[in-house]
Specification:
The chain is of the alpha/beta class. It contains 6 helices and 5 strands, in the order βαβαβαβαβαα.
Length: 168
């Protein structure tokens, strides 16, 4: 999947195509906010050389944030972070008998010097929002425009909550 644009892009990567149902949350959020992205399978275990090359060249390819989803041993986010200076957001994917706790611990417990921002188990939706917030943190016209879209999204959420009525 590719969303063409000259604007800063987000890479949404996952260890296997089976992670896509969870990672669709990030993709949907990036689309809603109008953030350009590419989505692809990049395996830390099955294609480690290609994974390293992807991470090392990500900035030159126009990416400014990488969202990496993985389950089980979940080495993808940390290994990508080891090969790039870009912000990496890890999404623990719940695929095992441990319901994603193994992936959460693997992603969140990174050694000093190799940070991975980690969202909740299955929290790809929030990863998409966080990636957009990172891109909106600058002073460029793009960042300011994205900040307006993020504010509109939050206002929409607020209105949806305020519209809820409880009948007890």
């Amino acid at each position: 999947m590719t969303e063409p644009s000259q604007d800063p892009r987000v890479a949404v990567i996952m260890g296997s195509k089976s992670d896509l149902p969870v990672m669709e949350g990030a993709i949907a959020m990036l689309r809603e906010l109008g953030v350009a992205f590419d989505a692809k399978v990049v395996s830390a275990h099955r294609t480690p050389v290609e994974m390293g090359e992807f991470a090392a060249s990500a900035r030159a390819k126009g990416y400014r944030v990488i969202i990496a989803g993985a389950g089980g041993a979940a080495h993808l986010p940390g290994m990508v972070a080891a090969h790039t200076s870009l912000p990496v957001i890890g999404v623990p994917v719940p695929i095992t008998q441990l319901s994603g706790m193994d992936a959460l611990y693997s992603i969140v417990q990174m050694p000093k010097g190799v940070p991975v921002a980690t969202v909740a188990i299955g929290g790809a939706h929030n990863a998409g929002i966080l990636a957009a917030q990172i891109l909106a943190s600058g002073d460029s016209q793009y960042a300011k425009s994205l900040a307006v879209r993020l504010d509109a999204y939050k206002a929409k959420m607020r209105a949806e909550v305020q519209a809820q009525q409880l009948e007890v």
